[in-house]
């Protein structure tokens, strides 16, 4: 049957930014895995408070309340996640606003599950992931708009590994370049773009990309946890006549695992990988920080391929959502805390330098703020 109309709390517009730049930050704790239960018992690393906050021990083992736009616990459905963070983005893409949905977290935290579900091919309705839901919603909205005939939806899938962009819809293209044009904005030059007319076209294409990703991994002996996977949908209207082209794009990003390299005792290429992955994740953090600090700041988009591709989906006329995926197990608490901290930094709203001289990467700017929109509170209990 039809899904109930979701009540979506609209993300706060960032203070100090003259551009429209919205970042919704959510945390998701997956259920304990069988392995975690077996080796570590039922020890959980967080205490649930409500749908926006939980208690977590910080680096000094002190209880701290962390608050986000929404927290999804182990009983959350895929549809809850979708309704809260993706529905507004899909709606906006149709009216020409770019959107980005990013999953962040250590390997095994539930990033791919959130994006693809248990499997993109065999998804049932309840477990279907964000990607397929975005597609379904996109076509439903377009079909209900009168001008369906003039809409054009295209799908690309790429992977970024060691700062190389690989086409997942054509494995022979393994080093794509990122370019910028007046009409297209930022784009991946030469990337395969498949025109999709409906959900099943999209599913076929996505399955191919996912299968190709696995093939490439075997060939190159790498784990998917070490590369970023991007699902790129572009929606365009009016390419047939001389009317102005309107449209936006939605980029879904399943990031590489955020775990620290020391833990794995990596050497050689694995160490290079870990460094590169951590670098592009920290560049992503820097970009988000610069964006939240306002237009005056230099935004280091060009410091990584990932942020360059996301440039006009993160900044400018855009909307972004970050899903911070965490293991609930006490045994993974340090990595989960680091993921939560990344989310907090992303959510941290800084006052523009004009209205306040405070400029810091720590939480100080937030505590000086009087804006009711600062919702990333931290207090001891
Ligand atoms: P990641 O992509 O972050 O490395 P995965 O999405 O592959 O992690 O998740 C690791 C394991 O946990 C998978 O077996 C996945 O099916 C399972 N899992 C993750 N999130 C959930 C969830 N919300 N509900 C049930 N199982 C989940
Ligand atoms: Mg994964």
UniProtKB/TrEMBL annotation:
Residues annotated to bind ATP: 105-112
Kinesin motor domain span: 22-349
Superkingdom classification of source: Eukaryota
A cellular component term, taken from the record's GO annotations: microtubule
Annotated keywords: ATP-binding, Coiled coil, Microtubule, Motor protein, Nucleotide-binding
UniProt key word Coiled coil: yes
GO BP annotations listed: microtubule-based movement
UniProt GO MF annotations: ATP binding; microtubule binding; microtubule motor activity
Region (Disordered): 353-373
Family the entry assigns: Belongs to the TRAFAC class myosin-kinesin ATPase superfamily. Kinesin family. KIN-1 subfamily.
Record-given protein name: Kinesin-like protein
Source organism of the structure: Oryza meyeriana var. granulata
Lineage, broadest ranks: Eukaryota, Viridiplantae, Streptophyta, Embryophyta, Tracheophyta
Entire protein: shown range: 4 to 384 of 524
